[in-house]
Design goal:
- By secondary structure, the chain is an alpha+beta fold.
- It has a domain of about 100 residues.
- The protein is built from 13 helices and 16 strands.
- A hairpin with a 5-residue loop joins strand 4 and strand 5.
- The chain starts with 6 loop residues before the first strand and ends in an 11-residue tail after the last helix.
- The mean pLDDT is about 95.
- It binds adenosine-5'-diphosphate and magnesium ion (MG).
- The site of magnesium ion has 4 residues, from helix 1.
Length: about 400
């Protein structure tokens, strides 16, 4: 197993369109499936955990329109939603963390159950909290808990739970928006890139100062995507700042400078993706990054460069990519077990390994995943657990 893997397995129940799923993750995992199948909802479940811990559960719910929008809408019994994450901490300790959240009247909510185990042996560190009451814990003194917050946030004050908390809030999720990258930005904290790229100029400034090798790598890949580009830096404009690109112009000896304002959507998205993949602050990197459709607005010829950047980044941190681009997946080296097929039927999302026939041709390298996607010949393994969903996944017990 690669040391870059933080989340090894994710189980979800009743989160948005996902009735239930149980997915193994790799250093680089590709979530593939048509529009509206639920790829973003899967990433959003992980993003939700990050937000609920980094800020508050209340805020994470509110930002998404409240619990009624977050839990799965279905006929009949109202749904509690729940998420279980199996992880390996940067120090190598495995463990798992799970919680379920239920609705109360007037758009209220409560954490029904929350369980955390750091280490899987008998004398591991753990807690079990139900509706705000500590039921069991290894800690001599556990901080006060309430039913409207995740207890891991409170437990982050204890040294044994801190590394998990830190790893969880170091996940980053990206849906880069060229419009936002193009606008002049307020100087702000540049230690980690925000979701749409709204602080990218500050991140580039932070990297230029603290990690010039990251800037070199961003520039190198950028010039492979757009051969005339020679680099990117942060430029102040009055009280604001923006990205400035150095671009070769025929007939001119030295490169010309172009502000983000005048660059194409594809260029701005590419620089956003490369910045997300290369960000580092005080030698620490995100534990996991989720990238939404990185191929958008990029020329198909740039797909192999983008893929190379994704593969390289996944040696340093875990990467999950949503995509439906045959060009991005046109590589015989992509292993079938790193593909997760996402499909929706009757408004319900299913996530499963790809079907056996696809696995077979991929392992023999007869086709690339991209070619199968183009031929519409890659789908979920209908015999897999994830597809049958015959029994309800128990989020709180080891299988
Ligand atoms: N609370 C919910 N309950 C049920 N379905 C939901 C809920 N929230 C969103 N959806 C469904 O999720 C689908 C969109 O999923 P999404 O992850 O954005 O797709 P993709 O990223 O694969 O294009 C929509 O069809 C929407 O109806
Ligand atoms: Mg999506």
């Amino acid at each position: 197993m690669s040391h870059s893997i933080f989340l090894t397995r994710v189980a979800i129940r009743n989160y948005k369109s996902i009735a239930q799923c149980d997915v193994q993750l790799h250093a680089l995992t590709w979530l593939i499936g048509p529009n509206g199948s639920g790829k973003s909802n899967f990433l959003d479940a992980l993003h939700f955990v990050r937000d609920a811990l980094d800020n508050s559960l209340e805020n994470a719910l509110r930002e998404r329109g409240g619990i009624s929008e977050v839990r799965r809408k279905s006929y009949g019994h109202p749904n509690n939603f729940g998420i279980r994450l199996e992880f390996v901490l940067p120090n190598g300790t495995p463990g798992r963390y799970a919680f379920t959240v239920g609705a109360l009247p007037n758009n209220g909510y409560e954490v029904k159950k929350e369980e955390c185990r750091i280490g899987l042996n008998a004398n591991c560190d753990y807690f079990l909290v139900e509706r705000g009451e500590v039921v069991d814990t290894s800690a001599a003194v556990f901080p006060k808990t309430t039913a409207d917050r995740l207890a891991l946030l409170n437990a982050s004050g204890l040294p044994e739970f801190r590394p998990l908390y830190d790893a969880m809030i170091s996940m980053g999720f990206y849906n880069l928006n060229p419009k936002i990258i193009r606008e002049p930005q307020k100087p702000q904290d540049g230690r980690s890139l925000k979701s749409a790229g709204e602080n990218i100029a500050s991140v580039i400034a932070h990297l230029t100062k603290g990690a010039p090798e990251a800037i070199d790598e961003i520039s190198e890949y950028l010039s492979k995507v757009i051969p005339s580009l020679h680099g990117v830096e942060r430029k102040a404009i009055g009280p604001l700042e923006t990205l400035m690109f150095k671009q070769e112009v025929s007939g001119s000896k030295s490169p010309w400078e172009f502000y983000a304002q005048n660059m194409s959507d594809g260029t701005l998205r590419a620089v956003g993706i490369l910045t997300a993949l290369n960000q580092v602050s005080d030698h620490s990197r995100p534990t996991l990054i989720g990238l939404e459709e990185p191929e958008t607005a990029l020329h198909p010829a740039a797909a192999s460069t983008l893929r190379e950047a994704l593969v390289k980044a996944s040696q340093r941190m875990q990467v999950i990519v949503t995509s439906h681009s045959p060009d991005l997946l046109d590589d015989p080296e992509i292993r079938s077990d790193s593909l997760v097929s996402v499909v929706a039927s009757g408004g319900e999302t299913k996530l499963a390994p790809v079907d056996e026939a696809s696995r077979d041709v991929l392992s023999k390298k007869l086709f690339t995943p991209g070619e199968l996607l183009r031929l519409n010949q890659i789908g979920p393994d209908k015999k897999s657990q994830g597809f049958l969903n015959s029994k309800q996944i128990n989020l709180f017990q080891e299988d």
